[in-house]
User: Fold these one by one.
Assistant:
Number 1:
Amino acid sequence: MKIGIGNDHSALEMKAEIIDFLRERGCEVVDYGTNSTESCDYPVYGEKVARAVAAGEVDQGILICGTGLGISLAANKVKGIRAAVCSEPYTAMMARLHNDCNILAFGARVIGPEMAKMIVRTWLDTEFEGGRHQRRVDLITKIEEENA
Ligand code: RB5
């Protein structure tokens, strides 16, 4: 699986740990930055990863900022993106099973690296269930299309 990853200045150490973890699991990782500790604007990196996922350049995305909120809000403005902030594995599992989310977001100032790895593992191991959930995801897409 090919994963695009992006972050702001608050999440450099966390990103490094997650990239190592992903590579150990055999994932290909594309790093969309930032790679500087200088204060930056999280929407820039949220958009980069979201566009890469929407264009099919990568299979899924991971976004990390201080809380996971700002960067996921930015990503969710890109057509076709369903980004979910997950601070524990149950939500990560449901975000894949029921919501077919294609971007996982979390906060480097909210959770530690071991919890983050557990969330990423759960995310990668869980497939969308389809069925009645497909209908609901299609309704989300319909809202997006009506507002285009
Ligand atoms: C940066 O200080 C912080 O606002 C950002 O990382 C994030 O938490 C925004 O949602």
Number 2:
Amino acid sequence: MSKPLAPEDLARIADRLERAERQGAAIPKVTDDYPGLGLSEAYAVQSELRRRRVAAGERVVGWKAGLTSKAKMVQMGVNVPGIGFLTSAMACPENSAVSTQRLIHPRVECEVAFMMRDTLRGRDCTREEVLAATAFVFPALEIIDSRFAGFKFDLHSVMADNASSARFVGGGRARRVHDLDLRSLGVVMEKNGRIVATASAAAVMGHPADAVALLVAVLADMDEELPGGSIVLSGGITEAIPVAAGDSMVARFQELGSVSVHFE
Ligand code: 0L1
Ligand code: MG
């Protein structure tokens, strides 16, 4: 077992990640310099990044589960899901133009988003509890942007990096969960009018609500809860699609309509 990192080391890692994000410049993954970084220390760095963003005036508007589908795990070579926070500064309007200027190597994921009505807490949260606490679901695109060179990392590095969170877009139609079978929802991803991926939402842990339950359990490990009023992104259904300035992405969901974004 390696020695725990000192608080100054965790602050230094947060400094590096914050600078990389602000400057849009990649850095080596955290474990290259801190091979002993544990998972709880990685989440402590993530919490420090969250604290700094809130201190700078951003609001935490929700959370995301990441690496929740086989396609994503295979793409990234990481086989354990994790979570990240979402702030008001990351939210982009439906069909808006997102600047790539401050992004390093953005990729787009299509996800089922949950709007929570009730607060959830605890390590044993179930799919049924998630569905009962959900006000509605809607389709979303998440724009991820690893701060690490070559988009290459391990689980601990990427969780310190807030699970590669960068921007997100909600759109389509809000639907009540009890009017849908979330497992069998099909989605088609298009880049510049061409189909680049298709899948069903069951790809996310068998049911996207299970990803929300997992997120609640990870929050419980940090002595935190998922507050009512939070947005939750349940994880990329297909692999993430690389984008650059000039590209347009659309995800067309069965039952939920479509959500789109452009890059400039
Ligand atoms: O939202 C995600 O699934 C991303 C989690 C972190 C891994 C990645 O950057 O692909
Ligand atoms: Mg995602």
